[in-house]
Automatic annotation (TrEMBL):
This is UMP-CMP kinase. CMP binds at N97. InterPro entries: Adenylat/UMP-CMP_kin (IPR000850), Adenylat_kinase_CS (IPR033690), P-loop_NTPase (IPR027417), UMP_CMP_kinase (IPR006266). It catalyses: CMP + ATP = CDP + ADP; dCMP + ATP = dCDP + ADP; UMP + ATP = UDP + ADP. Consists of three domains, a large central CORE domain and two small peripheral domains, NMPbind and LID, which undergo movements during catalysis. The LID domain closes over the site of phosphoryl transfer upon ATP binding. Assembling and dissambling the active center during each catalytic cycle provides an effective means to prevent ATP hydrolysis. One of its GO terms (molecular function) is ATP binding. ATP binds at G16, S17, G18, K19, G20, T21, R129, R172. The keyword Transport does not apply. PROSITE patterns: ADENYLATE_KINASE.
């Protein structure tokens, strides 16, 4: 199997910090495959799967979908893809996600790319995104921020204690943020 031991980078940061935007740039420059856990869950809703309604309700409330659902989607996507390097965007979002992914897949991330951005800037971006996401309304956005602080930041702290976090100031313009991202992935890989 070609991608039995793929290189994985977790891309984390609050809602609207720019994870998806920067992942697209990394794909283009460094040849990674981008797997957004949120995109996979939204596709699962659209596909009419039996979990669809449950996933939709959780996303509307800003809650974290059970690990087994998200991990199954991520594992399938890795398996379906011939690449050996993946950006996993927006996952793991809590300690249980993190431990379950490691246990089930045996994969440890090479590092964690963390987009650090103040809430007021993230809120501005989400409210002006206009892509019809059911969670881009002020009530859900506030819930997403709280879940990020309570559940997702501890995951970033866990990896930080292992020296694995590469933190980027994500409040700057897209191009400036990408300059920092490029320096992390390294010119040799471009
Ligand atoms: N933008 C981007 N960068 C900018 C910059 N530097 N300056 C100015 N504007 C910038 O960007 C957001 C908006 O800002 C865009 O309009 C962009 O043009 C602009 P984007 O790149 O989309 O940010 P991103 O961090 O990807 O924001 P997103 O809303 O996708 O983050 P979330 O973490 O909230 O969303 P995700 O899709 O990961 O998850 C959604 C929900 O799914 C979760 O709340 C949860 O309910 C569920 N979920 C799980 O349960 N489990 C999972 O593992 C994953 C998701
Ligand atoms: Mg995103």
């Amino acid at each position: 199997v070609l991608n039995k031991n793929p290189t994985v980078v977790f891309v984390l940061g609050g809602p609207g910090s720019g994870k998806g935007t920067q992942c697209a740039n990394v794909v283009e420059h460094f040849g990674f495959t981008h797997l957004s856990a949120g995109d996979l869950l939204r596709a699962e809703i659209k596909s009419g799967s039996e979990n669809g309604t449950m996933i939709q309700n959780m996303i509307k409330e800003g809650k974290i979908v059970p690990s087994e659902v998200t991990i199954r989607l991520l594992q399938q996507a890795i398996k379906d893809n011939g690449n050996d390097k993946f950006l996993i965007d927006g996952f793991p979002r809590n300690e249980e996600n993190r431990a379950a992914f490691e246990r089930v897949t045996g994969i440890e991330p090479a590092f964690v790319l963390y987009f650090d951005c103040p809430e007021e800037e993230m809120e501005r971006r989400l409210l002006s995104r206009n892509q019809g996401r059911e969670d881009d309304n002020i009530e859900t956005i506030r819930k997403r921020f709280k879940v990020f602080l309570d559940s997702s930041l501890p995951v970033i702290n866990y990896y930080d204690a292992k020296g694995k976090v590469r933190k980027v100031d994500a409040a700057r313009p897209v191009e400036e943020v990408f300059e920092s991202v490029k320096a992390i992935f390294g010119p040799k890989n471009e």
